[in-house]
Amino acid sequence: MKVFLLFTKDNLKDQNFIHQKLIQAGHESIILSSSIDFKNLIQQNIHPDMVVLDFFIYNPITFNVYKLMEEVNYKVPVLTYNFPLPSGCGVRSFWIRTLETLSYNQIREDKYQDLFELLFSLFEQIRNKDKKEQKNLNISSIMSTGQLAIFNILVENLNQNIDTKTILEKLNKKDCKHWKENTLKCNISRLNVLFKKTQNCTLKIFRSGTAYRLQELPCLTSNLLK
User: Fold this and answer.
1) What pTM does this model have?
2) Burial letters for 135-160: b for 16+ Cβ neighbours within 10 Å, e otherwise?
3) DSSP the chain
4) At what angle do helices 181-197 and 164-174 cross, to 10 degrees?
C-alpha cells in the first residue's frame, strides 16, 4: 500500500524509522519534503492509501490535509504519529476511535488492517523510546561524573552482560584517573540505590560472575508505559 510521510525537520529520525519499516513490510513509502509536495501530488491525482503526519506539521489554515483531500473528493485515513494522547489511552484504541469518529469506513476493510497494526506498533515503539530517553535524562542529571560514565557504558549495552574488565578499560579511556574494580563496584551499588529512590525508575544493575548488566524490570516497565 502507498503511504505518504510528512514530518518536521526535528523528527526526521522518526520519519526514517517508519519509512524503513514500511518498506521492509512490502509497502510503498513516499517521503514528502513539504506541504507543497503533498498538495501537488494530490492535485495531480497521485493519491496515497494512507497519510502519516507529524503533529507539528498540521495547520488548519496553511496546511489542512482533510480540506485538501476533500477538494479532490478523495478520502483516506490520516494518522498523526506523535499526537498527544489523552491520559490512560493507548495508541491503538485512540486511533481506532478517532478514525471511526471521522467516518473512515476504510478502517473496517481487511486490506487496511495489517497496515494499521504495523503503524500502531511503530508509533508505540517511538513513544516508549522517547519515554525511556527522557527518563534516562532525568536520572543522569543527578549522577556524579563517575556514575554517569558507568551508566552510559551500561546503557550502550542495555540488557546485555558486559565484563568488569571491559567496563574498566572503557572508563580509563574516558577518565584521566585509574579506575579499580572496588571503585567500580562501589559506584554501581550507589547507582542501584539511586535507581531505587527515583520515582518510576525501572532500572537495575545485576551482577553475573565478573559481568554487570543494566536491565529494565519488565513488570514495572509495563505499568509505567501504559
Assistant:
1) 0.58
2) bbeebeeebeebbbbbbebbeeeeee
3) -EEEEE--GGGHHHHHHHHHHHHHTT-EEEE-SSHHHHHHHHHTT---SEEEE-TTT-BTTTB-HHHHHHHTT----EEETT--PPTT--HHHHHHHHHHHTT-GGGGSHHHHHHHHHHHHHHHHHHHHHHHHHHHHHHHTTS-HHHHHHHHHHHHTTTS-EEHHHHHHHHHHH-SS---HHHHHHHHHHHHHHHHHSTT--EEEEEETTEEEEEE-HHHHHHHT-
4) 90
pLDDT, one tens digit per residue, over 4-58 is: 999 988 889 899 999 999 999 999 999 998 888 988 898 888 889 899 999 888 7
Summarised one tens digit per residue, pLDDT across range 204-215 is 899 999 999 998
How high is the mean pLDDT of the chain? 82
Cβ atoms within 10 Å, residue 170: 17
60 close to 52: Cβ distance less than 8 angstroms: no
